[in-house]
Amino acid sequence: MQNTASKLNADIKKTPLEHINTLLSDDMKAVNSIILKHMQSGVPMIPELAAHLITAGGKRIRPLLAIASARLLGYSDDAHHKLAATIEFIHTATLLHDDVIDESDMRRGKKTAHKIFGNEATVLVGDFLFSRAFQLMVEIGSIDILDVLSGASAVIAEGEVMQLSTKNNINCSLDNYLAVIRSKTAALFAAACETGGLAAGCSIEQRKALKSYGENLGIAFQIIDDLLDYNIDVANQLGKNTGDDFKEGKITLPLILAVLEANNNEKEFWLRTCGNLEQTENDFAQALKIIQKYDIINRGIELANGYGQKAKKAIAIFSDESKLQKPMSDLIDFVLCRNH
Q1: Which residues contact 156 (CB under 8 A, 6 or more apart)?
Q2: pLDDT computed for residue 273 by the predictor
Q3: Which of 50, 214, 232, 245 would be 250's cystine partner, CB 3.0–4.6 Å?
Q4: What's 225's domain CATH number?
């Protein structure tokens, strides 16, 4: 009885993401096996560099969403394992390219691949992973899935180019920011859910709902992720490495909202620090004060909540016979409230 009670208490303490991972643990083991198999190459640097990021402890939320969406509809075959691996390869390839473009030093608490292996090797291994993704798509054998994932890959690349056009532009509009994250982040969330449904033979209505769920969850996810970089509570309570976006002059939601409210002195501050990247030791502390002054974090959370509610409305059309509808709905709240 005591062991049973302990297990129940452990289940209660699990986050929605951990709960879904537990429900789909066998599926994710199969996905991981496919990932490890297909990142191998006769060129030793390729698996070494790929493993640097793939095995670095990411949440694997995108492939998990593909698996969950298929299982939500009662899918019992195994094509969704290759689908989930495909999505993880696309995601990893974009991260490798992102870090080179952004000149990022750290990713998931480790040195970025390009800092260890160099820009050329990192970009080329990213290309290798994209190629592996398309090989897996062909093996899956679904024209509809191939259409969605190839379209998403193009949209992600467009998002990268859009982001370049906003770089260090402190007058970037909220609409432009949302267009970038809809392309760079939400497109793959949406594709993961939509193709999971396609693997399970979903109806047109179910397909639209899963795509909407994924897209709105992805937008909310990225908004919260961008807020974390300026979140004073996270910095004070968790010791999180905040300030990377500020140091790189990335134009994200906190900066956009702060510039909209800024007086002349504050606009000059943002232009100097994030526009011209002329920063001093105490500038990030000043940035946090301005963010706090205008209640930017709470306003950003409110915006993310709006997209979260759209995602909840979309997932609500499904029954919970598979025991996944509620965890997928709860995942929205987890994303909105996460602090890491």
Answers
A1: 90, 94, 183, 184, 187, 188
A2: 97
A3: 245
A4: 1.10.600.10
Residue 206: give the domain boundaries.
Answer: 2-337
| Count of other CB atoms within 10 angstroms of residue 316 | 11
Domain count, the chain: 1
Contacts of residue 149, Cβ cutoff 8 Å, sequence gap at least 6: 86, 87, 90, 133, 137, 191, 195
Beta-bridged to residue 106, according to DSSP, are 111
CA distances from 225 to 35, 41, 118, 234 (A): 26, 33, 27, 12
Burial class (CB in 10 A: 0-12, 13-18, 19+), 98: middle
- Cα 114 versus chain centre, distance: 20
204-228 vs 296-315: helix axis angle to the nearest 10? 160
Cα–Cα nearest to 140, from 190, 83, 71, 191: 83
Q: Is residue 200 predicted with pLDDT exceeding 50? A: yes
pLDDT at 234: 62
Instruction: pLDDT band for 161, please (50, 70, 90 cuts).
Output: very high
In whole angstroms, what is the distance from residue 229 CA to residue 241 CA?
A: 8
